[in-house]
Design brief:
Blueprint lengths: L8 H5 L16 H8 L15 H25 L2 H22 L4 H15 L1 H18 L4 H23 L5 H22 L27 H11 L2
Helix pairs in contact: 2-3, 2-9, 3-4, 4-8, 5-8, 6-7, 6-9, 7-8, 7-9
Length: about 230
């Protein structure tokens, strides 16, 4: 996983300043992005992951198409600045996909090794993703000054949720692998922006409304864009 220059931190924070296209343009409805991005992450649109090389190859192709579709949405429906910082997020996702799908990498071999046990708790892993997606959608309704922090606090629950699902059922190395997958997804974007919210202390003062998040959303990327769209006015 590549390490980018720390000087991009301010630019990364600006990643949440995505602006949505006019709501009259059906192609730029946020649910169009959700359709594109549904397969970007493992365990989002399904409660299992491929265990064989052939099945993984087909899944990798679907993920590559999801990434390309998401990039096309950002290019068509967001500002030029949003396109730049959105690329940072998708670049991290693409790195994870490419390394996992490259049969010569250790990450690929680790994936093939740990996939069977992860599938034992696939429904729980999927539930963790869904809960985080919904929680992030709730964060998009926070007052402007709290939206970034609120989103970070909600995302931080994902690692805890997955660990609680995997650790009782799988060997420690599988739990570590699952953690590494989530860290790759967070990448520089969420890793840099959310670093100050990992202790949980800053999260205690954030009060969310009591309305549930959009249950139809499938991709974590979608509510993150909604957080930024709200900040952009």
């Amino acid at each position: 996983m590549k390490i980018r220059c720390g000087c991009t931190s301010l630019l990364l924070i600006a990643a949440f300043a995505f602006t949505a296209a006019a709501p009259t343009d059906d192609e730029c409805d946020i649910h169009k992005l959700d359709e594109c991005a549904a397969d970007l992450f493992v365990f989002t649109s399904r409660d299992s992951v491929p265990e064989s090389e052939d099945d993984l190859g087909a899944f990798c192709k679907a993920q590559e198409e999801a990434e390309a579709c998401s990039r096309a949405y950002l290019k068509k429906c967001t500002s030029s600045v949003a396109q730049g910082v959105g690329t940072v997020f998708l670049d991290d996702i693409r790195e994870e996909i490419q390394e996992r799908c490259d049969t010569s990498t250790d990450y690929h071999k680790d994936y093939i090794k740990h996939a069977p046990c992860l599938n034992k708790v696939g429904s729980q892993f999927n539930a963790c993703i869904k809960a985080t997606t919904s929680d992030l959608d709730v964060a998009s309704r926070l007052p402007a000054k709290q939206r970034i922090g609120g989103a970070c606090c909600q995302y931080s629950k994902l690692e805890v949720c997955v660990a609680q699902a995997v650790e009782p059922a799988c060997p420690p190395e599988t739990a570590e692998f699952a953690k590494s997958v989530l860290q790759r997804y967070a990448g520089e974007l969420l890793g840099t922006v959310c670093v100050g919210f990992r202790s949980g202390e800053k999260c205690k003062g954030i009060e969310y409304d009591d309305k549930p998040g959009d249950p139809t959303l499938r991709s974590i990327m979608t509510p993150l864009i909604k957080v930024g769209s709200a900040l952009g006015g």
